[in-house]
Amino acid sequence: MRCDLNGRVVFVTGGAGGIGRATVKRLAENGAAVVVADIDAAGAEAVAASLPDALGLALDVRDPDAAERAVAATLARYGRLDVLVNNAGVNTFKDRVDIDAFPKEEWHRVVSIDLDGLYVVSRAAVQPMIRQGAGRIVNIASVVGVTAMRLQSAFVAAKAGVIHLTRSMALELGPKGILVNALAPGSVLTEGTKKLFYGDDGTFRAQMAAFLDHVPLGRPADVEEIAEAILFLAAPENSYMTGHLMMVDGGWTAGFMM
Predict the structure, then answer these.
(1) pLDDT digits 0-9 by tens, 97-123
(2) Do 135 and 188 form a contact (C-beta atoms < 8 A)?
(3) For the chain, which domains are there?
(4) What residues have CB less than 8 Å from 196, skipping those under 6 apart?
(5) Are residues 20 and 92 in contact, defined by beta-carbon separation less than 8 angstroms?
(6) Is 47:24 a contact under the CB 8 Å cutoff?
(7) Rounded to an integer, what distance in angstroms lies between the CA atom of residue 14 and that of residue 125?
(8) pLDDT in tens, 187-237
(9) Which of 6, 121, 206, 243 has the most neighbouring CB atoms within 10 Å?
(10) 41 by DSSP, 3-state: which?
């Protein structure tokens, strides 16, 4: 789709790789000035350098002071902040075990980034939106926040929290002119999922054929397909949707494939 984002400033966390990189590219193609924020500072700067009007920033979403500095740098450069995409997130790769054996350190690592980090960045970024009387927030959740899967309890819990937090944010921020929605991708082809599922030496490659039998479209999403949905939620024309969870999952959650 095409929309007019000229004059809009978009802040994307986890913007240096995967869904984040595809998102900043797609939003920039539609005229937005983009802030690429990532814990990988060099990666953020490299992605920003490839776009016409972008700023690359180092950001650990767990750090409130860093979030405040990143928002201040955005305002210093552009004078406004219109759209926040809370995309930064991690999952468990090596410690995939049942809850009775799930390492507490891994639990805190995942939840601190995927849920706490979303709160930290949102709290900082929403301040200029409130002053402007307008803004958009897109929170990246997951289908496993709706339909749980085994062996990744921290990720499942964090993404379920993102979904309900989105609804709470929509209730609180709607009267201030800010729309808040969540997007729940299904399985997406990224460097991380290649290591787990889709690469020749993926840890769970043997299980993927059976898994994809339960996805009506029979394949993972490309990152560009997720970015397109984010563009829709950020588009000025999308002006009456808030508190919504958009599923982009190839039909995964539509029902059981027999």
Answers:
(1) 999 999 999 999 999 999 999 999 999
(2) no
(3) 9-186+221-247 (3.40.50.720)
(4) 93, 202, 203, 204
(5) no
(6) yes
(7) 15
(8) 998 776 666 666 566 566 666 777 788 899 999 999 999 999 999 999 999
(9) 121
(10) helix
